[in-house]
Write a structure and sequence with these properties.
0% strand, transmembrane transporter binding, single chain, transmembrane helix, PIRT, 3 helices
Length: 132
């Protein structure tokens, strides 16, 4: 592959620099397309918004109940009580951790939704006053 001779004034760029510019622009576009745009006003259902924390809460509650059952088995059974005494509290703590994380996640999402609504409102006000 031949490199073109550099121009005397340096205004023309080599093909390598053009490739770098386009790849840089493409990565910038890719990054900006990942973020949720303020300009799109597609309404999402409550399930679309809250499905992840609801799943985390339900899995946490199930694991917590499993830990409760295993811990109570250590009191009732005579055989293998050491296994139940080790596994029960582990499941209890993991279930409680997931349950609390999911319950804390829900108010965070609500706060984000309110901030997003305020941001969209301010953007519409700006566009109304400055586009006249």
């Amino acid at each position: 592959m031949e490199n073109p001779p550099p121009s005397p004034n340096g205004s023309e760029k080599s093909p390598q620099s053009k490739e770098l510019l386009t790849s840089n622009t493409a990565s910038t576009l890719c990054i900006s397309s990942r973020s949720e745009s303020v300009w799109t006003s597609t309404s999402r259902s409550r399930w679309d918004i809250y499905h992840k924390p609801v799943i985390v809460v339900s899995v946490g509650a199930a694991v917590f109940l499993l830990g409760t059952v295993i811990t109570s088995l250590s009191c009732l059974q005579i055989e293998n009580t050491e296994v139940y005494k080790m596994c029960g509290p582990a499941f209890l703590s993991m279930g409680l951790m997931l349950l609390v994380c999911g319950l804390v996640w829900i108010p965070i999402i609500r706060k984000k939704q309110k901030q997003r609504q305020k941001s969209q409102f301010l953007q519409s006000l700006k566009s109304f006053f400055f586009n006249r």
